[in-house]
Automatic annotation (TrEMBL):
One Pfam family from the record: GreA_GreB
Matches recorded under InterPro entries: GreA/GreB_C_sf, Tscrpt_elong_fac_GreA/B_C, Tscrpt_elong_fac_GreA/B_fam
Highest classification ranks of the organism: Bacteria, Pseudomonadati, Pseudomonadota, Alphaproteobacteria, Sphingomonadales
Keyword Nucleotide-binding: no
Entry GO MF terms: DNA binding; kinase activity; RNA polymerase binding
Region (Disordered): 1-23
Keyword Ligase on entry: no
Ranges of Basic and acidic residues composition bias in the record: 1-18
A GO BP annotation: DNA-templated transcription elongation
Keyword annotations from UniProtKB, A to Z: Kinase, Transferase
Stated name of the protein: Nucleoside-diphosphate kinase
Domain Transcription elongation factor GreA/GreB C-terminal: 82-151
Source species: Sphingomonas naasensis
Length: 155
């Protein structure tokens, strides 16, 4: 007999929905990052309450579980020392002759298109602990990046 005539529903043939994977390591955030997580949780709770369809509501609940976990595990990173790159620093660098400003932030606050890099990103890793005037190695090239200025990310 054909499978089409045997099965009771399409549920048995759907792909399983796994939880959203969490980034490895500590969940270090800036104060802004924690506020963004809180706002996302509130937004999702409202969306779940307003969603009439079960399948869409389940997808929202899955995302809410991720953000609740991120909120629970969030640790505000200690402020970096003056002039030293850390989480919460804005760093002006010169790379390949071009200057750019990079904010070093937590995973959930990262937006590479806006030059907000997670502290675990390779470029951010190369910058952590550096001071203005230093040159750091990057991408297999010695002294590839010049640190022009280090300051706190403005509120």
């Amino acid at each position: 007999m054909s499978v089409a005539f045997r099965r009771d529903s399409d549920e048995e043939h759907k792909e399983p929905k796994f939880e959203i994977p969490l980034p490895a390591g500590p969940n270090l955030v800036t104060a802004r990052g924690l506020a963004l997580i809180e706002a996302r949780v509130a937004e999702l709770e409202g969306a779940i309450a307003a969603e009439p369809e079960d399948e869409a509501r389940e997808a929202l609940k899955r995302e809410l579980r991720y953000w609740n976990t991120r909120r629970t595990t969030a640790e505000i990173a200690p402020p970096p020392e003056d002039g030293v790159v850390g989480i919460g620093s804005r760093v002006r660098v010169r790379l390949a002759g071009k200057e750019r400003a990079i904010d070093v932030v937590g995973h959930d606050e990262a937006d590479p298109h806006a030059d907000r890099l997670a502290f675990s990103a390779p470029l951010a890793q190369a910058l952590l602990g550096a001071e203005a005037g230093e040159r750091v190695d990057f991408n297999g090239r010695p002294e590839a990046i010049e640190i022009v200025e280090v300051s706190a990310i403005p509120d």
